[in-house]
Design goal:
The complex is a heterodimer. By secondary structure, chain A is an alpha/beta fold. Chain A has 15 helices and 19 strands. A five-stranded parallel sheet of chain A has the order 5-4-3-6-7. Chain A has a five-stranded parallel sheet with strand order 17-16-15-18-19, with helices on one face. In chain A, helix 3 links the parallel strand 4 and strand 5. In chain A, helix 2 packs across helix 5 and helix 6 runs parallel beside helix 8. The longest helix of chain A has 17 residues. In chain B, 31% of the residues lie in helices and 14% in strands. Chains A and B meet through helix 2, helix 3, helix 5 and helix 10 of A and helix 4, helix 7 and helix 8 of B.
């Protein structure tokens, strides 16, 4: 029977199918960070269970870490305790660990692919919803809660039922200034934040094949924002070229064997998807969100919606509430809306390609008066690569802060936070109320759009600046 | 994990869609290394004013909803993060059951691991249950997991679906890990076959492993 990419990966990992259809699914990679692992390690200790496969597990600190001077001690005592707890746990259970002051440290979803830990055809989990990012490698990757983290630690498996198959085909090619972020915002805007619920979402079509790995990661990263269990992109020559030579990737003959297997994973031509969605790439504009849900997307030439335009009174009330929270007027043009902060970073958009795209806008310009702009690379290696190319100097000369790697202002667990009422052009993934700091107002957009807003002081069409 | 059999309790109405995990428990409260103690910060942004005082308009600050053990809400509850701190916060507040037309997948799954029963029902039924909930303490709902039905205060009842395996685990208060470890032979067999037939699969070994 014809199978999808998801079906093939799933079938290759079923250890046992229980009578009611629940499967014991084998997990190839388990990524750990400091926020969602302490209770799981504690559970393991309390029950006297061992960590089944330290050699399939890797840990890094990212959510809580300061992105300022790393030579200083961590000031927030609770953040410090979580980091120290992880360090104690990895030592006790023998988990490979990327230390805070190592170049290998970074956001877990940047580090996994970068180190060759996340590979096609694998099952990859982490106690973090943006684990979907690794789907860009052609891996079935999804976020789990801490109980499941403990389950994977103890058994190297999860109890799961198969998801439904969804395919999103983006045909044609995007216009200049339109990035993977804009494609994904357009998809979420179209299908909504529950559009993918219960599904694994495979991205296909010419516009997807044309993306580099960073762009594919941006797309899969935000598949969770469309409600999907995971995002997937079939591995191809772009994927293999990215993987070859990376630290933990197979080498030599093993790499050839791996590629031969990976080539068999693509969805069969006659496979049937439960849900199909199509988009025309040429119709996608540089986009951003106006509300407090990632589905509240408009093009840069769009206007903020009017609650009166919604027939469902509950939806109209919700839109009004969002406008009040966001400090926007119905019918207002989004272009020209002033910002206070620009944040370039997060597991969505902090790879070297993202920084190049932002630097291309920042070069020779300066951050507008009254705007704070920060660039937070996704890992120590991304930071070093950017510095080798001179991107750090472009940013610093333009008035951007050049910081150390971490999750930073995406969720404000570390000191990088918005204050109440501040409006932020953010390359992160969630514009929920208070996400970047209590009362903070988040507009999701691409790195180029965020850089353009930073130097203009307001949202502008990035196509006018390239 | 506490068993879930039958629950008779006050239900709090939260008539909004897309209540996300950042609303249920904001990220700044995730800096704990324990599971307990999160209840006081559940829904913190809506529940407390800037000066830390209670917002009297928020449903869980009003009687009898301070003692609610059931939430009735609208679509896509629990969307966003995988943080199990969200169900931990609800549980620590006292919530054992959430009723909504739809849930985000990870949150839905996390509930079962903590003895919370998430129930999916059509929107019009959720709206009717919300009207029941608005009647306060005179209108307790009874959720009977064994019979898979909710008894309403007017004597009528509503049937609901639940996955058989998860129902069993909830009613018995069972630990998933213990169940899975009974399949140790199959897991070890899978690993041996893999090692033999697909030796190219790399392991993560670090020279300077901690």
């Amino acid at each position: 029977m014809a199978r999808t990419l998801f079906d093939k990966i799933w079938d290759d990992h079923v250890v046992e199918r229980l009578p009611d259809g629940t499967c014991i699914l084998y997990i190839d990679r388990h990524l750990l960070h400091e926020v969602t692992s302490p209770q799981a390690f504690e559970g393991l200790r309390m029950s006297g269970r061992r960590l089944r496969r330290p050699d399939a597990t890797v840990a890094v600190v990212d959510h809580n870490v300061p992105t300022s001077d790393r030579s200083l001690p961590i000031e927030e005592p609770e953040s410090r305790l979580q980091i120290e707890t992880l360090e104690k746990n990895v030592a006790e259970f023998g988990v490979p660990y990327f230390r805070l002051r190592s170049k290998d440290q970074g956001i877990v979803h940047v580090v996994g692919p970068e180190q060759g830990i996340s590979l096609p055809g694998m099952t990859i989990v982490c106690g973090d919803s943006h684990t979907s990012t690794h789907g860009a490698m052609g891996a079935l990757a999804f976020g789990i809660g801490t109980s499941e983290v403990e389950h994977v630690m103890a058994t190297q498996t999860l109890l799961q039922k198969p998801a439904r198959n969804m395919r999103i085909t983006v045909s044609g090619q995007v216009g200049p200034g339109v990035t993977a972020k804009d494609i994904m915002l357009a998809i979420i805007g179209k299908i909504g934040t529950a559009g993918g619920t219960g599904h694994v979402m495979e991205f296909a079509g010419d516009a997807i094949r044309a993306l580099d790995m960073a762009g594919r990661m941006t797309l899969c990263n935000m598949s969770i924002e469309a409600g999907a269990r995971a995002g997937l992109i079939a591995p191809d020559e772009t994927t293999f070229a990215y993987i070859e030579g990376r630290r933990f990737a197979p080498k030599g003959d093993d790499f050839e064997k791996a590629c031969a297997y990976w080539r068999t994973l693509a969805t069969d031509d006659d496979a049937v998807f439960d849900t199909e969605v199509t988009l025309d790439a040429a119709s996608i504009q540089p986009s951003l969100t106006w509300g407090t849900s990632p589905e509240d997307v408009i093009g840069i030439d769009g206007v903020v919606p009017d609650p009166a335009g919604f027939s469902d009174p509950a939806r109209a009330r919700q839109v009004q509430r969002m406008l009040d929270y966001m400090g926007l007027e119905a019918g207002q043009k989004i272009a020209g809306t002033r910002i206070d902060v620009a944040f370039i970073g997060s597991c969505t958009n902090s790879r070297i390609e993202d920084l190049r795209s932002a630097a291309a806008i920042a070069r020779g310009r300066h951050v507008a008066p009254g705007v704070r702009a920060m660039v937070v690379p996704g890992s120590g290696h991304v930071k070093a690569a950017a510095e080798a190319e001179g991107l750090d100097r472009i940013f610093v000369e333009a008035g951007f802060e050049w910081r150390e790697a971490g999750c930073s202002m995406c969720l404000g667990m570390n000191p990088d936070r918005l204050t109440a009422g501040q409006r932020c052009a953010s390359t992160s993934n969630r514009n929920f109320e208070g996400r970047q700091g209590p009362g903070g107002r988040t507009h999701l957009c691409s790195p180029a759009m965020a850089a353009a807003a930073a130097v203009s002081g307001c949202f502008v069409d990035v196509r006018e600046m390239v | 994990m506490d068993r879930f059999t039958t629950l008779t309790a006050v239900a709090a109405p939260m008539p909004a869609e897309n209540i996300d995990t950042d609303q249920i428990i904001p990220a700044r409260f995730l800096k704990t290394i324990q599971r307990s103690g999160l209840g006081k910060n559940a829904f913190a942004a809506q529940r407390y004013n800037d000066d830390g005082s209670e917002n009297p308009d928020f449903v869980l600050n009003r009687e009898p909803y301070r003692h609610a053990e059931i939430l009735v809400t609208l679509d896509n509850f629990g969307c966003g993060s995988s943080r199990e701190h969200a169900p931990w916060a609800l549980l620590d507040f006292g919530i054992r059951c959430v009723i909504a037309p739809s849930f985000a997948d990870i949150f839905f799954n996390n509930c079962f691991k903590n003895g919370i029963l998430p129930i999916r029902l059509p929107r019009e039924i959720c709206e009717a249950l919300m009207e029941d909930a608005a009647l306060g303490s005179n209108a307790r709902l009874t959720v009977d997991l064994q019979a898979q039905c909710i008894h309403r205060p007017d004597g009528s009842s509503v049937a609901f679906e639940v996955d058989g395996f998860r129902k069993h685990m909830l009613i018995e208060g069972l630990d998933d890990i213990g169940q899975t470890l009974q399949h140790e032979t199959a897991i070890a067999g899978f690993e041996r076959k893999r090692a033999l037939e697909e030796s190219w699969r790399p392991n993560i070994v670090m020279e300077d492993a901690s």
